[in-house]
Design goal:
Elements (H helix, E strand, L loop, with lengths): L7 H25 L8 E2 L5 E3 L7 E7 L4 H20 L14 H13 L7 E4 L6 E6 L5 H14 L9 E7 L1 E4 L2 H16 L8 E9 L6 H12 L4 E2 L6 E8 L2 E7 L11 H30 L1
Parallel strand pairs: 2-4, 8-9, 8-10
Antiparallel strand pairs: 1-2, 3-5, 3-6, 4-5, 7-11, 10-11
């Protein structure tokens, strides 16, 4: 005997609710128009990424081993997000959100998500066509220089093992601009004023270190001369015992700048791999010295 078929009335009721939700979904989509469907691009791991570095942006350059750029993006994003949560108590947008059950519930959630403005990610990776180099855009409240300094300082003081298998050096950028003489002048004026302006009222020793990639218009010497002129009078160049170090990064048609403190060398030029490596070396040296002292103490006791 064949099993009875499900009641048609019950099935029609279910379809009716589903059709009603679909109708509301289509009506909302038509009202919003095509622009409402433009979402941020994502990496293979689902993380948001930006398409371009633009004048006015702030961010963080990073280096990694050749061929490990993809893995480095995921690793660095995790480090940045974790440190941002520590500093600013900012949690991921999707934390503790219960997944909807059923097609109708999923449609209702999609409608609600389109009505609400989604907060922009604190860190957005930008795909570059140069090997071993990454860039992450940042937004408020992240201030790249203090953020990277805090991250590296914590790494130097932490007793934990290395968290950076692929990430090497981090270089914060306070402001980005066009890689031209005018663009460099605008960036220098905005970045240097708080440190070297008349308001500071302090004579400082400084040094300038430019890095140029995939760019042929501006030269290293020209950049140094222009940035030094932007610093203004009353300050002295000191390449070794500087108070402040001006870092200039030029990539294709974009330039960026920041000012870091006199512990830049002590923090291995913000190279996380070297920070952790130096800690391992120090631990090994102390262990060897400890073993060398023990036999001498035993001999003296005898």
């Amino acid at each position: 005997m064949d099993p009875p078929s499900p009641p048609k009335k019950r099935q029609a009721s279910t379809n009716s609710r589903g059709n009603s939700a679909n109708k509301r979904f289509k009506e909302h989509r038509e009202k919003q128009g095509p622009k409402s469907w433009r979402t941020p691009k994502h990496n293979q791991d689902g993380n948001a990424k930006a398409s371009l570095i633009e004048p006015g942006d702030a961010g963080i350059w990073a280096t990694c081993d050749l061929g490990k750029e993809g893995k480095c993006v995921g690793e660095l994003r995790e480090l940045l997000d974790e440190h941002a949560q520590k500093l600013y108590s900012i949690r991921s947008v999707d934390d503790d959100v219960e997944e909807p059950k059923g097609i109708e519930a999923e449609i209702e959630k999609e409608i609600e998500s389109m009505k609400q403005a989604k907060p922009q990610a604190l860190f957005q990776s930008v795909k570059l066509d140069v090997p071993c180099v990454l860039f992450f855009k940042t937004r408020d409240p992240v201030e790249p220089v203090s953020f990277v300094h805090s991250l590296c300082k914590d790494a130097s003081l932490s007793s934990k093992q290395s968290r950076s298998r692929w990430v090497k050096r981090l270089t914060p950028m306070t402001r980005m601009g066009k890689a031209s003489e005018n663009g460099l002048e605008e960036v220098a004026k905005a970045v240097l004023q708080p440190y070297f302006g008349q308001e500071a009222g302090i004579s400082r020793k400084f040094a300038i270190r430019p890095t140029i990639r995939n760019h042929s218009t501006l030269t290293r010497d020209g950049v140094i001369r222009q940035v030094a002129a932007a610093v203004g009078p009353g300050h002295k160049v000191d390449l070794k015992n500087y108070d402040l170090l001006i870092l200039v990064e030029i990539y294709k048609n974009i330039c960026g700048m920041c000012v870091v403190g006199d512990d830049f060398e002590a923090l291995k030029r913000y190279n996380l791999a070297e920070i952790y490596a130096s800690k391992i070396q120090s631990t090994t040296t102390l262990a060897k010295e400890s073993h060398a002292v023990e036999p001498q103490a035993s001999a003296a006791a005898e």
